[in-house]
Amino acid sequence: MIPTSFPYQIKDLKLAEWGRKEILLAEQEMPGLMSLRDQFETNKPLKEVRITGSLHMTVQTAVLIETLVMLGADVRWASCNIFSTQDHAAAAVVKGTTNYSSVPVFAWKGETVAEYWDLLWQAFSFPRNMGPQLIVDDGGDAALLFHKGCELEDGSQWVEEDSHNEDEHELKRLLKQIFARDSSFWHRCKEDLRGVSEETTTGVLRLHQREEENSLLIPAINVNDSVTKSKFDNLYGCRESLIDGIKRATDVMIAGKTVVVCGYGNVGKGCAQSLRGYGARVIISESDPICALQALMEGYAVKSVDSVVHEADIFVTATGNIDVITVSHMKKMKDYAIVCNIGHFDNEIQVASLIREGVKRQPIKAQVAKYVFPDNHCIIILAEGRLVNLGCATGHPSFIMSISFSNQVMAQIMLWEKQQELENKVYLLPQKQDEMIARIHLLAQGGELVELCEGQSAYLDIQKDGPYKPREYRY
Ligand SMILES: NC(=O)c1ccc[n+]([C@@H]2O[C@H](COP(=O)([O-])OP(=O)(O)OC[C@H]3O[C@@H](n4cnc5c(N)ncnc54)[C@H](O)[C@@H]3O)[C@@H](O)[C@H]2O)c1
């Protein structure tokens, strides 16, 4: 139960009972996290380790948070997206029960961008003016706040430069406020910080950029590129949660529609497959010839957005890139075309520029808005161009998040236990752990594995208990 003067900022604590019921339901579908609890609850490998989480505050994340706590950690949490929090999950985590400790959560659905950064700072602010010892990050905002904080204390003038968007503006505002109050917080934080585990493609890209520039200040684990993450969550997760988001937002019939999916990486592959499964005519737009050829071999049309902009009913961005759907594209779209993003951040679609172009925004309901152009045609934009599956629905199913979050837990344990060995580089989890996570989830779903006999493992020159593939195998 919540101790007195316990810190938290959420929508409504009264939602806790509902949240707890859904968390218990999710646990049934999260065999990986449950088995890690069984394996490590007694030894508590994260005993008293201060962990800051910046990852969508959903029901499934609640199971991750409570797993970290059962492994001994002292956790504070914020969401990594202004629309993705499930308020009942946040309430349940804060309230706790006799079996689950209360955890400070700072998140609600529908934060402003300014609130978002302030809440992330709350998740960094442990008692006695201390920062975290480990970070769980999704998209790189927590790592960005930490690195920019250190750079400011080292004399960087970045906070005084013009901002390119609202997020950057609010991040700079927050950094200046923290610096004015405590000009050495981030360096003290750095002394204690042992690393970050990063959940997604875009966050990993940022970490690699820092590694290349020699500006990465802590060890990092790339959870995204565990095979059991990128080839499962990104693909099979989005295969289910994209349509969930579009349907909850619009109730539109997918069958018979023409849908453009921008990006045919892991996320795009999952999206295209489910859209086709529903009977849509799917067109892929890609910049990488290998991915584009894969799409063609799967039977999709492969076209540029420009060449099909007039004919499509739904546009989905899944690239992790900027300015993929431009204002000029949106001007040419059909009346009531639906536009959404399942990639990262809010800049795959030029939503912010629409208002500057005189387009009128008319809200329909939370996270669904009609944008009316001066010529009177309109389009429907979901979640303001931010993640549609988390803004308009509740993200991926529990089972797939169990796979991703098992990687997160293993990454946190590795960062802590191997802190003497790890350098300020980006690491992958060992292949055997990837295979172990796959094995747990396979067996939990009733799958069976072939066990290689001595002769077979000798013939292929692999150990009977793995790794089963060379590191460079692409799956
Ligand atoms: N919403 C979610 O639940 C969720 C889950 C996982 C990943 N993500 C995010 O989705 C994004 C994509 O992830 P991924 O794992 O598929 O990455 P990926 O690198 O496998 O695929 C992205 C693809 O987009 C293509 N691309 C880049 N710029 C393009 C452009 N202008 N037009 C067309 N195609 C372009 C690339 O060539 C690449 O093939 C990332 O930002 C990632 O962080 C979201």
Give a concise summary.
The protein is an alpha/beta fold and 475 residues long. The chain has 20 helices and 15 strands.
**Any idea what the radius of gyration is?**
22 Å
Total beta strand runs: 15
In percent, how much strand structure appears in the residues? Answer: 5-15%
What's the shape? Answer: globular
> End-to-end distance, in Å?
45 Å
Number of distinct helices: 20
Helix content: 40-55%
Low-confidence stretches: none
What ligands can be seen in this structure? nicotinamide-adenine-dinucleotide
Strand line-up in the sheet with most strands = 9-8-7-10-11-14-13-12
Can you walk through the features of this model?
- Helices cover 44% and strands 13% of the residues.
- The chain is an alpha/beta fold.
- An eight-stranded mixed sheet has the order 9-8-7-10-11-14-13-12. A seven-stranded parallel sheet has the order 3-2-1-4-5-6-15, sandwiched between helices.
- Helix 12 links the parallel strand 7 (258-262) and strand 8 (281-285).
- Helix 1 (16-28) packs across helix 3 and helix 11 (233-250) crosses helix 12.
- The longest helix has 20 residues, at 398-417.
- The chain is globular, with a radius of gyration of 22 Å.
- The mean pLDDT is 97.
- Nicotinamide-adenine-dinucleotide binds at residues 200-202, 230, 233-234, 237-238, 262-268, 285-288, 291, 318-321, 324, 342-344, 387, 389.
